[in-house]
Structures are given as C-alpha cells and as structure tokens.
C-alpha cells in the first residue's frame, strides 16, 4: 500500500502543478496583452481588487483594461522593467496631465519644475481649469471631479507651441482631448502655467509637447571639411605604408611591421568614419549602423595599443632584448583580441536607455558621455602606458654614457625612438583637441566652430605621420636617397625570424 501511494504521489504532484499553472494562466490571460497605449496607463501594482475589478484612486477599472507589463517607456524609448500591472485609467476616466506639483511651473530654459519668483503674481490653481463641455459651452470646473490627474512630464525635454511671438490657445475638452481649431494635441503632453509673451505678468495654462530627441542629420560645410581632412590623413597613412613596404630594412623589422600594422588600422578606422560622416543614418540598415562604427572603434583603439606596444619594444631594445616571431605574436595577438572584444561589447551595449550604436546616429551620440567612456578612456589608458615607457626610456638614455661613434652618427634605435615620439606627441595633441571639442560642444548643447579645428587636426595628423615616420627616420631617408641614385634595393635587411 505504501509503495502504491509512493507511486501515486509524483503523479498527484504533477496534476496539482498543472492545475495551478492553468489557474495562473487564466488569471493573467487578460493581462498578457496591451489594451491601450502606454501613455494612457498607470501602475496599479498593489491596488485593491473587488469583484474582479481593480480600484485605483477611487476609480473602478475592469480586468480587461489591465495588463502585465515587462517594460516602461521613457522619452519614447522602451526600457525593460520588472513585471508589473498597469491599467488603462484614461479609458475609464478622461486624463489630464500636469507637468509639476502645485506651486511650481515648468521652466522652458532649465527644463525642470521651479517655484516662480515672488515678484510675479500667484500661480493659477491646479484644481480648476476652463473646460469645453460636450454641449460646446465653456465652464471653469474642478478637474478632480471629472478627470484623472497625472502629475509629471512624459519626456525630459518639453516645449511650448507658439505661433509667431504668442502662445497658441489650446482648449481642454470634457473627454480629455486638447485641440486648437480642429488640430488635436499629442497625448504626450502636460499642462503648466506660463507667463504670457505680451510682457504682462499674467499666467496662462499651456500644454507642453515633448521636444524631439532625435538628432537630425546635417550634411554641411563642417561635415564635408571633416571628411576631406580624414581623406588627407588616409592618403598620408597610405604613403607611409607603401614606403615601409618598399624598404626591406623596415619591411622585416619589428618596428617596420608594427608601423605598417598601425597605418593599416588608421586607414581602416578613418575610412568608415568619413563614410558615416557623409551618410544619413536613416539610409543605412540597422546592421550597417552597428557594424561600421564597431569596426571603426576597433581599429582606432587597436592603433593606440600598437603605439603602446612600440613604446614597450623601444624601451626593451635599449636593454638588448630581441623579440622573436613567437614573442611578437604572443604579445600582439591578445592585444588584437581585446580590441575585437571591446568593439563587440560596445556594439551591443546600452548607454543609459539607448543603444550606443544604431540609434539617431551611427557613431557615438554627442548628447551624452558615451564617447568618453568607450573611446577616449581606452585611448587615454594606452597613452598612459606609452608615456610610462617613454619616461623609463628617457631615464635609461640619460644614465647611459655617450659613445664616440654615436656623436657623429645617431644610433638606429635612438633615431627610431626620437622619430616615433615626435609622431606620438603630434597624435596625442590631435586627440586632445578632439576631446576638448567634444566637451565644449556637449556643454553648449550645440555644434561650434571648434569642429573645424578637429577637421584640420585630422589633416595635420596625416602630415605629422609623413614628417615624423618618414622625414625624421634615418633608415627611410637613406632608402629614399638610394632611390634617387637609382639604387632600388636596401642592404643589410633584418630577417623576419628575429625582430630587432
């Protein structure tokens, strides 16, 4: 008997679980769809339930107007949230939205609720407002007797609707709609008292609309200048790449391989950046709007860590350390993998409530600090690493006794060291201007003429590569002189089996 009961217990438990599941599914069946727009709902979690209906703020809400939500909408963006119940309160009772608590008004400049200065007349009461009834007559009625009052702004940035230099006179209807000469106001609004624009101190109730958050694409002189300067930098980097490929002394040395990898990264980073500057994000697919900036980020970040790698190797070269191919790839491969992983992570991450890539712009949004976190911060870390090895190298050089042979002809390593750090200094200056331009535009909340400085710095970056990596490198200069003398080959090439 006990054995039979033991066999039946698991079956009984399964049936019990099935019944509970069916009951739960039936109880929340009407709550798994969305019976109205999100703006017309209110969170009723914890509300009293009576005879199958919910009671919220003394308003009875039928079950078919209730749904379970796993998101909220802020500034027009759907954001995941814990599952909670929301009810279509505006279907049970007309809604009126007030921007600020009583005694405050929404300041259109600071974009927040503030208490008006005392010299002005007192604010109108939020309890009464002129309403057009269904019979067409206007009456000053108590709002709470006929409407469900919601306090708060539906968006962060609100704006008033003006016609010329005056506010438009909108009419609140008994059914909750707001109109002006047949034009229906958006549901995403809120009322606030505003001083009339005719210079007097009287207040008027005005509905504020959500200011557009979308970053509009602009293709003007600034954008074309920036793209052309990027093209100049790309051409300059390509010249450096070709020269280092042609010179066998650089072709197979560690320094030459690293510089070639760096120039390729800069070309592959600047090219899509110029493309994105000239193309409207609305005309690009979602995939392209996330892949292109991710690749740009990867190449730009990787380029700076290649510079850090070169700085590390230049420091070791003064101590006589020789890199083999295995050592080179054991260090370089993780750097590449980290850059790829970082760009992949950023491409699928959110900053605040927005995707970093794939929103209003196919690059970092200039209205937030995402570019500082995901681009400039890794670049700063790479510059700090390079600077650390630069200081160590300077200390070693200052303590090293001078050799007579080096007085007449600078050693190869010291020449590479000086030409490389000339270029690194120019690069750091260019990116410092970029950071300053972003910070200045961010606090101004608009583009400035400092963008032209960034554009010219991009072109300067290319010229700096030609000047420092070619003009100040003795091996490259000797190679170019031999070309002038119709000697097309470079002697004493360093084999690839050992990076010097």
From TrEMBL:
Residues annotated as transmembrane: 224-245, 257-277, 297-316, 328-351, 371-397, 423-443, 449-470
Membrane topology: Multi-pass membrane protein
Signal sequence annotation: 1-27
Gene Ontology MF: a single term: G protein-coupled peptide receptor activity
Species for this entry: Drosophila kikkawai (Fruit fly)
Domain Methuselah N-terminal: 36-210
Family of the protein in this entry: Belongs to the G-protein coupled receptor 2 family. Mth subfamily.
PANTHER family, per the entry: G-PROTEIN COUPLED RECEPTOR MTH-RELATED (PTHR47154)
Cellular component, GO, one term: plasma membrane
Cell compartment(s), UniProt: Cell membrane
Name the record gives this protein: Probable G-protein coupled receptor Mth-like 8
InterPro entries registered for this protein in UniProt: Methusela_ecto_dom_1, Methusela_ecto_dom_2, Methuselah_N_dom, Methuselah_N_sf, Mth_GPCR
Gene that this sequence comes from: mthl8
Keywords linked to the UniProt accession: Cell membrane, Disulfide bond, G-protein coupled receptor, Glycoprotein, Membrane, Receptor, Signal, Transducer, Transmembrane, Transmembrane helix
């Amino acid at each position: 008997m006990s054995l039979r009961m033991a066999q039946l217990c698991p079956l009984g438990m399964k049936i019990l679980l099935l019944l509970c599941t069916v009951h739960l599914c039936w109880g929340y069946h009407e709550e798994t769809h969305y019976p109205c727009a999100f703006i017309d709902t209110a969170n009723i979690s914890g509300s009293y339930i009576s005879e199958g209906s919910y009671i919220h703020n003394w308003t009875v809400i039928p079950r078919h107007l209730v749904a379970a939500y796993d998101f909220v909408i802020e500034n027009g963006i759907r954001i995941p949230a814990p599952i909670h119940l929301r009810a279509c309160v505006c279907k049970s009772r007309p809604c009126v939205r007030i921007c600020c608590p009583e005694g405050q008004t929404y300041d259109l400049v600071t974009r927040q609720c503030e208490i008006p200065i005392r010299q002005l007349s007192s604010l109108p009461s939020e309890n009464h407002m002129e309403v057009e009834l269904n019979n067409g007559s206007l009456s000053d009625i108590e709002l709470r007797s006929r409407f469900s009052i919601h306090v708060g702004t539906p968006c962060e940035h609100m704006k008033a609707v003006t016609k010329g230099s005056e506010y438009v006179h909108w009419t609140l209807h008994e059914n909750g709609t707001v109109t002006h000469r047949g034009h229906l106001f958006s549901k995403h609004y809120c009322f606030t008292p505003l001083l009339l624009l005719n210079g007097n101190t009287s207040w008027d109730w005005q509905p504020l609309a959500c200011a557009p958050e979308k970053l509009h694409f602009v293709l003007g002189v600034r954008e074309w200048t920036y793209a052309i300067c990027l093209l100049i930098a790309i051409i300059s980097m390509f010249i450096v790449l070709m020269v280092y490929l042609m010179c066998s002394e650089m072709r197979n040395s560690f320094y030459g391989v690293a510089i070639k990898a760096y120039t390729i990264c800069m070309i592959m980073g600047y090219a899509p950046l110029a493309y994105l500057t000239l193309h409207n994000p609305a005309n690009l697919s979602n995939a392209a709007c996330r892949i292109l900036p991710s690749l740009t980020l990867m190449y730009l970040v990787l380029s700076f860590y290649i510079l850090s790698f070169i700085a590390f190797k230049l420091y070791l070269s003064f101590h006589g350390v020789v890199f083999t191919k295995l050592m080179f790839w054991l260090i370089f491969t993780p750097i590449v993998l980290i850059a790829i992983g970082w760009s992949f992570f950023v491409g699928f991450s959110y900053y605040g409530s927005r995707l970093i890539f794939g929103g209003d712009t196919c690059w970092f949004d200039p209205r937030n600090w995402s570019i500082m976190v995901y681009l400039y911060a890794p670049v700063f870390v790479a510059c700090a690493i390079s600077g650390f090895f630069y200081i160590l190298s300077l200390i070693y050089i200052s303590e090293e006794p001078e050799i007579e042979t080096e007085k007449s002809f600078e050693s190869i390593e010291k020449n590479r060291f000086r030409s490389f750090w000339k270029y690194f200094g120019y690069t750091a200056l260019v990116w410092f201007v970029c950071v300053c331009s972003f910070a200045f535009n961010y606090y101004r909340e608009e583009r400035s003429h400092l963008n032209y400085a960034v554009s010219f710095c991009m072109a300067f970056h290319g010229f700096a590569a030609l000047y420092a990596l070619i003009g100040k490198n003795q091996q490259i200069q000797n190679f170019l002189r031999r070309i002038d003398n119709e000697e097309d080959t470079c002697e004493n090439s360093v084999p690839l089996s050992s990076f010097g």
